[in-house]
Design a protein that fits this description.
about 425 residues, alpha/beta, eight-stranded mixed beta sheet, three-stranded antiparallel beta sheet, 11 strands, about 10% strand
């Protein structure tokens, strides 16, 4: 069991982003059809209500029904981005929180902000995937927390996962949820990356809410696949039960108190995207194919350097374990993930967040490598990467991959500057 450690004041200013980093950006220009919807709504002067207006909630309900999740618009809550919505949901549930280790970087800061004696506990993930805790470790952690007079009430999952870019097998997801329900926990399934799965026909994905609809809340940040990261919009599906209605009411109270409403023009664009129009669906599929190709190349570069990473099957990033290169890193003065983050960020000229951002121990030499910075330096190059039949053969993309591979490979070699 790992309690989320308090922040070390001596290192509080380390790293380029204290509480980040945000989810990886797609690195692609805004879809013209989405931009047109946003522009047409720019004159709206009436704000969206806390929790989202009827049009946005109806679109979200239809989006989930197409994916096998039954929900009415009255069971949907919207907010300006995943962090704000998760904060409101966690506040509504109350108690201590269980998180997989590693987990998305924006989860733990919400638990810190809630305070009030609440704690977050990281639970190890199984060897085959990230995003969900090992079922037996979860059971043991919950019972130890209670033995120490804690109050565990909530488990967070991300089946298509950031940071590990894996998709947890259905049998593992079911086993984890069965433990959570047996222990009286609510489950929040963060499905932000659902529509970024690289090969949907080959990857079996079941939402925990399909298995246990009355006990699982689903959260989706639209920036995962549907809208630009600069347009804050997220939606949540709550169970159609008495306790679910109570949680929804409490969530709305929190959002209202925070003034956390989706900006009206963004709400229009989000509703359009959630209706799954052909341009949005086609862009999401094309982006997933592109990032799959680039992630595959990054994965090969990491393995060629003697490091380790699980094969990515979703998202637009890779979670690399550079511990096998520890000796070469130490020769460069890199002994923990903060120093590794600083070193690679400076070496590559783009943010490379360390594993400590995702709940991993500081001494673990892990980083998340994003693929978006490799796609080109201009909007034109990025669109060319998206539409090319062989994007890895584009000169600028090939050069970026070679530079990344060289930067990782050199970490395992002695520091010749010595």
């Amino acid at each position: 069991m790992q309690r989320m450690a308090p922040e070390d004041p001596a290192r509080a200013d380390r790293g380029r982003v204290r509480h980040g980093p945000p989810a990886p950006d797609p690195g692609l220009p805004v879809l013209p059809e989405l931009a047109a919807v946003l522009a047409a709504a720019a004159g709206r002067t009436v704000c969206e209500p806390p929790g989202g207006g009827a049009a946005l909630r109806t679109a979200a309900a239809g989006h989930w029904r197409l994916r096998g999740l039954g929900v009415d618009p009255d069971g949907v809550v919207a907010a300006p981005g995943g962090p704000a919505l998760l904060f409101a949901l966690m506040a509504a549930v109350g108690g201590d929180v269980l998180l997989p280790r590693p987990c998305p970087a924006w989860w733990a800061p919400q638990a810190r902000l809630l305070g009030g004696g609440r704690s977050a506990f990281h639970v190890p993930t199984p060897a085959e995937c990230g995003g969900v805790p090992d079922p037996y470790a979860l059971m043991e952690t919950v019972r130890r927390v209670r033995d120490e007079h804690g109050d565990p009430r909530l488990l967070l999952l991300s089946v298509p996962d950031d940071p590990t870019a894996t998709v947890a097998p259905p049998e593992t997801v079911r086993a984890v949820c069965e433990v959570a329900l047996a222990e009286g926990l609510w489950v929040i399934s963060d499905e932000t990356w659902r529509d970024t799965v690289h090969r949907p026909s080959e990857t079996v994905f079941f939402s925990p809410a399909e298995m246990f609809p009355d006990h699982v809340l689903v959260l989706t940040d639209l920036a995962g696949a549907l809208t630009p990261t600069s347009w804050p919009a997220a939606v949540a599906r709550l169970p159609a039960t008495g306790p679910g209605a109570h949680l929804r009411a409490r969530t709305l109270d929190v959002l209202a108190a925070l003034g956390a409403a989706v900006p009206a023009p963004v709400a229009e664009a989000a509703a359009y995207a959630l209706h799954d129009p052909e341009p949005v669906v086609a862009r999401a599929a094309a982006a997933a194919r592109l990032h799959a190709r680039v992630q595959g190349a990054v994965h090969r570069a990491v393995l060629d350097a003697g490091a380790f990473a699980r094969p990515p099957v979703a998202g637009r990033h890779l979670y690399a374990d550079l511990d096998p290169l520890r000796d070469g890193l130490a020769a460069r003065g890199v002994t923990d993930s903060m120093e590794l983050e600083d070193h690679l960020t400076e070496r590559l000229g783009t943010p490379v967040p360390g594993g400590h951002r995702f709940g991993d121990p500081l001494g673990a030499l892990r980083v998340r490598l994003s693929t978006a910075p490799l796609l080109g330096a201009t909007p034109q190059q990025r669109m060319e990467s998206l539409t090319a039949e062989e994007p890895l053969e584009l000169p600028y993309l090939e050069q970026a991959l070679n530079e990344l591979g060289a930067a990782i490979a050199e970490l395992g070699r002695p520091n010749r500057a010595d």
